[in-house]
Each structure stands twice: as structure tokens, then as C-alpha cells.
């Protein structure tokens, strides 16, 4: 059977024709024509309200996009993922982050074996451990309680825990501080260790493979620092725990495997915060709140698995993304949280989205002839408004936007939250409506400007509008809502991968750099032979080692 190529389907071709017809329709017109538009194009699921009415779509667009999803067999793939089929073909693995938060506890089988007992056992182990640290039962080598926990990991073993711990800061305690070290740049670990007391510091070394160069380098530095400060190798047992799938390497590092929290190869790194990789979150906010995070994700999983495509939030977000990427030519997608605690969400989603769908071949290994994942980026509003929003409003690129905001704040300080929300809503409205030349002229002449001065000012002040955005609101950023929000994006990414016919669960594109770095590392020793490189790389190696 020839493999599915989305661009060759009737649904794709119909969307292309439709795109030509609708491309110049302005969102203003669509709102004017249909007073019920906001209601028609909005959804609520797992405590998240999505208004997608400010997208450049009409009922026909949505119908055709849903037809594309049907052609790509999105429903079938959802079933395959949840049932534990090995859909990560290049690694021969199931994709079961949903089992990690399967709060219904119904059996989920991999190779015939129910994984839920093992999932629950690790959750119980996390519960026990986080409770002992938080209650000061877990003591350091010298008998003092733990005040600082340092997570050492990178990529999926870093971004999720860091993002969620910051997002749930209102649920943390001041007497237990979390730190994150990821970069192999010594400045990262140096800045953290400088502030810490070895007697009261606990390190979580988080690595699925336990072979990642950056993580192991940082972990060895932390270990040396601790042993030097406490004067004994025996101290490692009370100050280091590991999260990994690789017990052999954990033991080789010198961590007692009784202090190891396991997970499984069917958990992708960037989908792993729900596993023991979430241990720093559980330590920071307590296991009850970590479980609430799982509950929220599970609620979104059920919505995703059981809702018809037209009422399915991840499917709708995915289809809108496809519409902009493949039909309206958007190369990037901005995620703009109006919540300071979500400051690391864009970075987290960068890995989730770009490592998943930044692919150039189909599942069958044929080159794709269509665009796949966009560049994902973002910053919390309102900071972005005073930095890059200019380009989104008046630049030459189309940048679809997701605004995310909680209706209520955990920090009710004066008028801050109302001001924040006003800005969020205003940005969506401004992007959608724009400001016409006639409106600008009327404003300027009301302000006393006229003639040539007025006319020369007009073009700079016109906003084209017709720039799309989704607005996602939660009542409050609770652990449940955060869980649902992350699961929403995970499933959106999955649906897009299905439509693009790529494997969203491998990441071969990170390997070449690792391989070449291993070769260059010994060549940075002064006097070592430098070979097998292009003239640029060879000269740069020599310059980095001082010209010799
Ligand atoms: O290099 C990319 C990657 O493999 C990610 O997919 C992963 O999240 C990260 O490295 C860290 O890997 P590990 O958890 O095995 O240290």
C-alpha cells in the first residue's frame, strides 16, 4: 500500500481551493456577518475554555479541516496510542504517557502486560519519598533536614519539572527551595551550588538514559562538591537520588538503586513529567498536588479520547495549526501566557512541539512534500507587548497566537490582575480588528492634525488586522488546570503529527550534534590531532584551544 500523503487527499485539495476563496476575507467581516460567531467557535473541556472564533475560518473551513482529520484517520490513531500499540515505529515503542495519569486505573497493556501496577508502585514510592523530604524525616548525612533540592537533568528531564514547579509556585513552601541545573556550561551549576549548604542539599539526577553528557557532567560535579564539603563518600547515599530507566548506569554512577525511581521506554522524554521525572514537582508542591496535576491531564485525555472531532479541543487546535502552517503560510506559532508563573511554558512547549514534529520524512521514511512543525516561541504577556508584538501586529509574517490566562489570580494585588486581563483581551481584539486608514485619519484629525502631516502619518499607524489568535482561559491556575493544559498541547501535537504522517515520538535529529561533539571533545586538548573536519570547524577548534 502506498503510504498516506496528506497533500494528495481530496480534503487537502479542497482546502487549497477554499483557501484561495477565503484568503482575503477579513475577520472583521466574519464577525459582522455572524453575531453568534464567538459562541459557535468556542469549546470547554477539562476546565479549559477555548475561544477560537478569532481564527481565519468559517464553517466550510472547519468542515474541510475535519474531513482532513477523518482522511488521516485521527480517530484510529488516537485509539492506537491509548491502547499501547507500538506507534513509535522507529524505536519500536508504545507511547503511553496517558497511562502515567490513568486515574481510572483501568488496565493498559504493553505486550500483553498491564502497566498500571508498575505505574502505581512508582507513584507510591514518589509519595513516600516526597513526604519524607517535606516532613524532614529524610535527613542528610549529618542529620540535618533538607532545605534545597537540585534537579539535574536536561530536555524532557528538566523542562517539564522546571516549568510545572514555577507554574505551581503558589503551592510551594518557602522552607523547601527547588533549583534546576541543565546546561553543561559550568556557570549553571556554579551559580546554584554557590548558594547552597551541602548538609541540607539533595540532588535528583534525572535522565531517562542516564548517559546524557550534560547531565552526567553536572551530576559528577555535584557529587565531587558534596563529597568534598561533607568529607565522605558515604554522604552520597543521603544526598543523591536518581530518576531513570537505566538501573545499571545509575548504580555505576554510585547511587544506590534503592534510591532510584524508575520509568519505562514507552514514556518519551518530552512526555515524561507525569512519571517519576515529576519527582521535583511532587517534592515542591506535595504528592496530593502532583496527583491533582495527573487528574487534570486525565480529564483532558478522556475528553480527547471520547469527544467527536468537531467538539474535541486538541483536534480543533491541531487543525487550526495545520490551516495556518500548510495553507496560509505561517512558519511560526506564538504561545503567550498572561500569567507570570507560566514563564517557562513556551520553552517547555518548544521541546514538546519542535522535537516531536520537526520532521522531514514520513512514518515510512519518504521525504515529506509539505511543511511540518512550525517554530514555536513565546514569552509571558505583557512583557512581549513591549518587545516583539510590533512584528505580530504590523510585520510581514503571519504569526498565529495562543493567549493563555487565568480569570482569577493567585496574587490578588491591587488592580494588577484586571490590568493583565485587559491587556490580554485587548491584544486579541487588536490583532483581529486592526485599525483602518479611515479610522486612523479620523483619530488624527480629532487630535488636530491635518493636510500633508496627517497623510504622511497615516500608513505608519494602520494595523492590517485579520491576525488570528486563540484565547484559552482557566478559572485559576490550579494543578488540575495545568495538567489539562499540558495534555491539551501534547494531544494537539500528536494530531498534527498524524495529519503530517510523521513519527512525533522519535528525535533522531538530535543525534548528529552529539556524535560530532564526542569527536571534537578530545581535539580541544592542546596539541591533539585535529582531523576529518571542514576548514571552518578545524580552524575554530584551533582558535578555541588558543591557536595551537
Ligand atoms: O537530546 C534530546 C533528548 O534525547 C531529549 O529527547 C531528552 O528529553 C533529553 O535528551 C534528555 O535525555 P535523558 O533524559 O536521557 O537524559
TrEMBL record:
Keywords of this entry: Cytoplasm, Gluconeogenesis, Glycolysis, Isomerase
Entry annotated with the keyword Cytoplasm: yes
Subcellular location: Cytoplasm
Pfam families in the cross-refs: PGI
Reaction equation(s) it catalyzes: alpha-D-glucose 6-phosphate = beta-D-fructose 6-phosphate
Molecular function terms, GO-annotated: carbohydrate derivative binding; glucose-6-phosphate isomerase activity; monosaccharide binding
This protein's record includes keyword Protease: no
Recorded GO CC terms: cytosol
EC number per UniProt: 5.3.1.9
Signal peptide: none
PROSITE patterns referenced in this protein's UniProt entry, alphabetically: P_GLUCOSE_ISOMERASE_1, P_GLUCOSE_ISOMERASE_2, P_GLUCOSE_ISOMERASE_3
Stored Gene3D superfamilies: 1.10.1390.10, Glucose-6-phosphate isomerase like protein, domain 1
Pathway: Carbohydrate degradation; glycolysis; D-glyceraldehyde 3-phosphate and glycerone phosphate from D-glucose: step 2/4; Carbohydrate biosynthesis; gluconeogenesis
Catalytic center residues: 355 (proton donor), 386, 514
Protein task: Catalyzes the reversible isomerization of glucose-6-phosphate to fructose-6-phosphate.
Family statement: Belongs to the GPI family.
Protein name: Glucose-6-phosphate isomerase
Species in which this protein is naturally found: Thioalbus denitrificans
Organism ancestry: Bacteria, Pseudomonadati, Pseudomonadota, Gammaproteobacteria, Chromatiales
Amino acid at each position: 500500500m502506498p503510504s498516506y500523503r496528506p497533500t494528495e487527499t481530496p480534503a487537502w485539495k479542497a482546502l487549497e481551493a477554499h483557501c484561495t476563496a477565503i484568503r482575503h476575507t477579513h475577520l472583521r467581516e466574519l464577525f459582522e456577518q455572524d453575531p453568534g460567531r464567538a459562541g459557535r467557535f468556542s469549546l470547554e473541556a477539562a476546565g479549559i475554555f477555548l475561544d477560537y472564533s478569532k481564527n481565519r475560518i468559517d464553517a466550510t473551513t472547519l468542515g474541510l479541516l475535519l474531513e482532513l482529520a477523518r482522511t488521516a484517520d485521527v480517530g484510529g490513531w488516537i485509539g492506537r496510542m491509548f491502547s499501547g500499540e507500538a506507534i513509535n515505529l522507529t524505536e519500536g515503542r508504545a507511547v503511553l504517557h496517558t497511562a502515567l495519569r490513568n486515574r481510572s486505573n483501568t488496565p493498559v497493556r504493553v505486550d500483553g502486560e498491564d502497566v498500571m501496577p508498575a505505574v502505581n508502585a512508582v507513584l507510591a514510592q514518589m509519595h513516600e519519598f516526597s513526604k519524607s523530604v517535606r516532613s524532614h524525616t529524610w535527613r542528610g548525612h549529618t542529620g540535618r533536614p533538607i532545605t534545597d533540592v537540585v534537579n539535574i537533568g536536561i530536555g524532557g528531564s528538566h523542562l517539564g519539572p522546571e516549568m510545572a514547579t514555577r507554574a505551581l509556585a503558589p503551592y510551594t513552601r518557602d522552607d523547601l527551595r527547588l533549583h534546576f541545573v541543565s546546561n553543561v556550561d559550568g556557570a549553571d551549576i556554579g551559580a546554584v551550588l554557590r548558594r547552597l549548604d551541602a548538609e541540607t542539599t539533595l540532588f535528583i539526577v534525572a535522565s531517562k538514559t542516564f548517559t546524557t553528557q550534560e547531565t552526567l557532567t553536572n551530576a559528577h560535579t555535584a557529587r565531587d562538591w558534596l563529597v568534598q564539603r561533607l568529607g565522605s563518600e558515604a554522604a552520597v547515599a543521603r544526598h543523591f537520588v536518581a530518576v531513570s530507566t537505566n538501573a545499571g548506569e545509575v548504580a555505576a554512577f554510585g547511587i544506590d538503586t534503592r534510591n532510584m525511581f524508575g520509568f519505562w521506554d514507552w514514556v518519551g522524554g518530552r512526555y515524561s513529567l507525569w512519571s517519576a521525572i515529576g519527582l521535583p514537582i511532587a517534592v515542591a508542591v506535595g504528592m496530593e498536588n502532583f496527583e491533582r496535576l495527573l487528574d487534570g491531564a486525565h480529564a483532558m485525555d478522556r475528553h480527547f479520547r471520547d469527544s467527536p472531532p468537531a467538539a474535541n479541543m486538541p483536534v480543533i487546535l491541531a487543525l487550526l495549526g495545520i490551516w495556518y502552517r500548510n495553507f496560509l503560510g505561517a512558519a511560526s506559532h506564538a504561545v503567550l501566557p498572561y500569567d507570570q508563573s507560566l514563564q517557562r511554558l513556551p520553552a517547555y512547549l518548544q521541546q514538546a512541539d519542535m522535537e516531536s514534529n520537526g520532521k522531514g520524512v514520513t512514518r515510512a521514511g519518504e521525504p515529506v512534500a509539505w511543511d511540518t512543525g512550525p517554530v514555536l516561541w513565546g514569552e509571558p504577556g505583557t512583557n512581549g507587548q513591549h518587545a516583539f508584538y510590533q512584528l505580530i501586529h504590523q510585520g510581514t509574517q503571519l504569526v498565529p497566537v495562543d493567549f493563555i490566562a487565568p480569570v482569577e489570580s493567585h496574587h490578588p494585588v491591587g488592580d494588577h490582575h484586571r490590568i493583565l486581563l485587559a491587556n490580554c483581551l485587548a491584544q486579541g481584539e487588536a490583532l483581529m480588528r486592526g485599525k483602518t486608514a479611515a479610522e486612523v485619519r479620523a483619530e488624527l484629525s480629532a487630535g488636530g492634525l491635518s493636510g500633508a502631516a496627517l497623510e504622511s502619518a497615516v500608513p505608519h499607524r494602520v494595523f492590517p488586522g485579520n491576525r488570528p489568535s486563540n484565547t484559552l482561559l482557566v478559572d485559576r491556575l490550579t494543578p488540575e488546570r495545568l495538567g489539562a493544559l499540558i495534555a491539551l498541547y501534547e494531544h494537539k501535537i500528536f494530531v498534527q503529527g498524524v495529519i503530517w504522517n510523521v513519527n512525533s515520538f522519535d528525535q533522531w535529529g538530535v543525534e548528529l550534534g552529539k556524535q560530532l561533539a564526542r569527536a571534537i571533545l578530545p581535539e580541544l586538548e592542546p596539541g591533539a590531532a585535529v582531523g576529518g573536519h571542514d576548514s571552518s570547524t578545524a580552524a575554530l577548534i584551533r582558535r578555541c584551544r588558543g591557536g595551537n
